[in-house]
Amino acid sequence: MGRPSKYPRELRERAVRMVAEVRSDYPSEYQAMTAVAQMLGIGSPETIRTWIRREQVDAGDRPGVTTDAQMEIKRLKRENAELRRANEILKSA
């Protein structure tokens, strides 16, 4: 498994929503991210940028591999490695 997130899911979702809500108050999306990061005590606006981009990919608004697809690929790679090990054991027996 991957490492646990430093920030709870609820905080990540809230930050993404807040940036969308306050975006019109700032000249750029990055400035909105910076303001929200400061309000919520998040170390870097880049962290929020990552969450927003991931949300856009998952929603189909941005090209990329969705979170669900990434999890499935990871599971399949793990399963493939197990099957390869089992095959090696059977070949050597």
UniProtKB/TrEMBL annotation:
It holds the Pfam family HTH_Tnp_1. Residues 66-93 form a coiled coil. InterPro entries: Homeodomain-like_sf (IPR009057), Transposase_8 (IPR002514), WH-like_DNA-bd_sf (IPR036388). Keywords: Coiled coil. One of its GO terms (biological process) is DNA transposition. GO terms for molecular function: DNA binding; transposase activity. This is Transposase. It comes from Candidatus Agrococcus pullicola. The lineage of its organism: Bacteria, Bacillati, Actinomycetota, Actinomycetes, Micrococcales.
